[in-house]
Amino acid sequence: MKIVILDGHTVNPDDLSWEPFEAMGNVEVYARTPMGQVAERAKDAQAVLINKIKLGREEMDQLHNLKYIGLCATGFDNVDLQAAHEKGIVVTNIPSYGTPSVAQHAIALLLELSNRVGLHNKSVHESEWVRSADFSYFKAPIIELQDKKIGVLGYGAIGKQVAKIAGALGMQVLVHSAYASHMENGRLVTLEELFRQSDFLSIHAALNERTLGLVNHTMLSLMKPTAFVINTSRGAIINEQDLADHLNTSKIAGAALDVLSKEPPTADNPLLSAKNCIITPHCAWISHEARQRLLDIAVDNLKGFLGGDPRNVVKGD
After folding, report:
1. For the segment 220-257, what is each residue's pLDDT rounded down to a tens digit?
2. What are the tens digits of pLDDT across the range 10-32?
3. Pick the CATH number of 2-97+287-306 from 2.40.70.10, 2.30.110.10, 3.40.50.300, 3.40.50.720
4. For this structure, is 263 an active site residue?
5. Beta strands 277-279 and 187-188, pairing class
6. pLDDT at site 317
């Protein structure tokens, strides 16, 4: 079997091993693949592994030997599942590999918004403390999280973990989910209640037709002027211009984002220059431990497919 890994660098920048895949076939690894070269590089492959490469009907039409697409990610919005289903191509993903790391990053963003550690560290290293007339000062308000309300939008594995940690910090947890009916931590509320009541809104929903652009002017206008938005899910869930407008006019207090609608972003993305907006480069998932779990599951997924027992299969409509 020929196995082609089209964008291996983010998952494995040479600190992990591809050897388990090499035991199952002839492996070609590309650090990055421009979209115009996908068909050429994968033309003879029976199995293709991708992280963020897009595989649509046009690409699949050119890959006549393709039988398996292994997503090295949980999300699958970069694959045309309907086309894959019609062509008999099995698509698998990696559920829950990054739950501890992504939840940890969401909480790190929460704490940065509430405690502004980075801002105060910068101030000290710029000698403001050396010059200070007082033994103590603050550059921005410090917010105590005890009894503050955190709204968790989406209650999958990561949302549940964030709710659990936030509860341990003494926060009141509100949850909106299209699927969950029982809350392990927190109280189930409507979408409008979530936006109105949350002091911090943390997004953990999948990107689909229902959630695309969900966080828009209408919903943001429901939020308190003291509220913050956190997103470690998918950038396109937020209407970025609407969020930037609310930040720049102080209609909400701030945002902390690990994802944007286009990655890498273009220089004119309005959030790059928005007030009180912290942005990290989609790195919540990228701990060594999480990436090792990802590769372990990816190996098991491919073994299952080759053995006639595919697992973690993502089905088209």
Report:
1. 999 999 999 999 999 999 999 999 999 999 999 999 99
2. 999 999 999 999 999 999 999 99
3. 3.40.50.720
4. yes
5. unpaired
6. 55
Asked if domains 2-97+287-306 and 99-279 share a fold, the reply is: yes
**Please, are residues 153 and 160 in contact by the beta-carbon 8 Å criterion?**
no
Say which amino acid occupies 69.
I
pLDDT of residue 315: 84
All structural domains of the chain with their residue ranges: 2-97+287-306, 99-279
Q: Which fold has domain 99-279?
A: Rossmann fold (3.40.50)
CB neighbour list of residue 299: distance below 8 Å, 6 or more residues apart? 20, 21, 24
Q: Examine residue 264 and say whether the peptide bond preceding it is cis (omega within 30 degrees of 0).
A: yes
Quick one: tokens of 2? 């020929």
**Annotated catalytic residue: which of 184, 263, 288, 289?**
263
| 293 part of the active site | no
Residue type, 28: E
Catalytic hit among 234, 246, 291, 293: 234
Determine which one of 105, 204, 246, 282 is catalytic. Answer: 282
- Dihedral sign for Cα atoms in the order 118, 123, 125, 129: negative
Q: Is 148 exposed, middle or buried (0-12, 13-18, 19+ CB in 10 A)?
A: buried
pLDDT digits (tens, 9 = 90+) for 128-176: 999 999 999 999 999 999 999 999 999 999 999 999 999 999 999 999 9
Active site residue 282: yes
